[in-house]
Design a protein that fits this description.
4-stranded antiparallel sheet, 4 strands, alpha+beta, Beta-Lactamase
Length: 159
């Protein structure tokens, strides 16, 4: 299982505005670009995302959500609005994407190795074996996404 510390580290470096909340909706981590959507002066320790989004002037940003479980419980990963690149050079964005893909692959390697070890000791046909097969399949799909991100980063320019 991924630690909250590792999860917030990965989220911090994502090249899109992303917020990580706990199960009560409080922000526990965010990408640097999320500050362009959220009020950067807000106290991140006590920021309730839904309440804050209601106070933003103008149209409310669209969101895509995914639930991720860390070592301390479930969290919601929320992508805010459209990707905001601002004044960053494409080569800088490409370099960041390559770094994120590298870190993500490192995390996936740990997840896949532990899931493989656990699957090898699980009884065939058991719920545990089925659950671990799902973890491994999801990890493979995530590795494919990270590989595409790495290839896009390499094609966009020198790092």
């Amino acid at each position: 299982m991924i630690s909250l510390q590792s999860l917030t580290h990965v989220v911090k470096h994502l090249p899109i505005p992303v917020v990580l909340t706990d199960d009560a909706g409080y922000v526990v981590g965010s990408s640097a670009l999320a500050d362009s959507v959220l009020d950067s002066s807000a106290d991140q320790q006590h920021l309730h995302l839904e309440d804050h989004l209601l106070t933003i002037a103008g149209p409310r940003p669209t969101t895509d959500r995914a639930t991720i479980t860390s070592d301390v419980g479930p969290h919601e990963l929320i992508v805010l609005g459209q990707p905001v690149v601002g004044q960053a050079a494409p080569a800088d964005v490409a370099a960041l994407a390559g770094e994120v893909a590298h870190d993500f692959n490192n995390l996936l390697g740990v997840i896949m190795n532990y899931a493989s070890l656990a699957a090898a000791s699980a009884d065939e046909g058991s719920q545990q074996a089925k659950d671990l097969a799902e973890v491994l399949e999801a990890s493979r799909r995530a590795a494919d996404i990270a590989d595409r991100l790495r290839r896009m980063s390499a094609a966009a320019g020198p790092q």
